Amino acid sequence: LLQLHSNTVRCFGNKQTKTREFNKVLVANRGEIAIRVFRALTELNKTSVAVFSEQDKLSMHRLKADEAYLIGKGLPPVAAYLAIDQIIDTAVKHNVDAIHPGYGFLSERSDFAQACQNAGIVYIGPTPDVMARMGDKVAARQAAIEAGVQVVPGTSAPITSAQEAVEFAKQHGTPIILKAAYGGGGRGMRRIDRIEDVEELFRRAFSEARSAFGDGSLFVEKFIERPRHIEVQLLGDHHGGIVHLFERDCSVQRRHQKVVEIAPAPALPAGVREKILADALRLAKHVGYQNAGTVEFLVDSKGQHFFIEVNARLQVEHTVTEEITGVDLVQAQIRIAEGKTLEDLKLSQETIQTNGSAIQCRVTTEDPARSFQPDSGRIEVFRSGEGMGIRLDSASAFAGSIISPDYDSLLVKVIAHARNHPNAAAKMIRALKEFRIRGVKTNIPFLLNVLTQQSFLDASVDTYFIDEHPELFE
Ligand code: ADP
């Protein structure tokens, strides 16, 4: 068989870096994100490899790759996609050059990135040490402080005694927020408004965190009132080059989890945007960030911004950035991992411009009428919204598809792109209304309620929006 490998050595000052074009790339994930990556691989003329659990033997991602291999025999549904040894063995056996982790599962595990490297396989993401540093909230905060980026005032290490939380609240004032050190995905957070409640609520949060995450340690932070969640998309190459691809507004959240994402952030004053973008770049340069990543900030009502965390991976909402910049982030990730420079990819900061506005809705198989309980079963009828400016990223959105309770309930990401925010919202509303899904319940009625709120259309929402509008759940 024809080998398309090319090994070249480049010189950058005194640095020598190898570029190596991949033939075959394995995606250690499932669902829509696995298919998203396969599409990029096919466009780049590379062979795509899927891995699938026993529970996923009929799933679409298995069928969309050029090759597919069973992993995690006998393991529970999620554990299969966390079986590092089996995934690496599969990759080695089938001559895979690189592994893309998607989001979730192993995408934030520096030990997985290291295991790939040890097996001679390129991990499509940051280096293991940068992943480890960014994955640790204390170390990430420290890096931000070193880079001169303002962080949310908080304890500099996880604490285990209520007394330390009381001290913090006395010093910084209330409200404060407790966060489980080993939580994530919006879980394990609790706001406290009154100093006299701190002791009692700390104890409760500590024991909840211990049973939910195996360790009760908590961070204490100043609670930022009425914040917006603004995050910056970055790409860094292996040669010190780093660029931003502007920002997203992910303030529409339910229980601290993103529901609707917008790019660029509408109604963000230009001066604030500039500072946030510059801070994100400074932090990324400081840690030597490579590949795609996101720096997250909270912006208070006065326009002050505070670093919260770095996501050292591709995010669910990367699509809205792709729509407004025209840059295929997954292709960029792959080519950067091959050793290409941003210059090779024609991605200088000046050439990255935004065009219009994009909105993403996460359509899930959750029933808003039953407190968003995941629904499962067979989709009997499926018609989607289509037409100009609508993009759909999905794996299981079709008639006959079986929605299993084993995995996350994301059914389809609907992305609308138009010249400005109100036009993108109008397209999204129109597209969501075109959907007809029978057999499983979805959150589409809830999403329509959100999108038709005047404050959403005016782009004046903060993270309190959904909680303050109980009528959205009707
Ligand atoms: P996770 O890692 O669990 O996703 P994050 O730290 O990214 O948690 O926070 C998720 C969301 O929780 C934020 O977008 C915001 O809405 C809320 N949040 C987190 N920290 C604070 C804070 N200090 N003040 C106010 N809201 C916060």
From TrEMBL:
Cofactor(s) in the UniProt record: biotin
Keyword Plastid found: no
Domain Biotin carboxylation: 21-471
Top-level taxon of origin: Eukaryota
Domain ATP-grasp: 141-338
GO biological process: gluconeogenesis
UniProtKB keywords: ATP-binding, Biotin, Ligase, Nucleotide-binding
Any one GO cellular component localisation term in the record: cytoplasm
Molecular function GO labels: ATP binding; metal ion binding; pyruvate carboxylase activity
Name of the protein in its database record: Pyruvate carboxylase
Boundaries of the shown chain within the full protein: 17 to 490 of 894
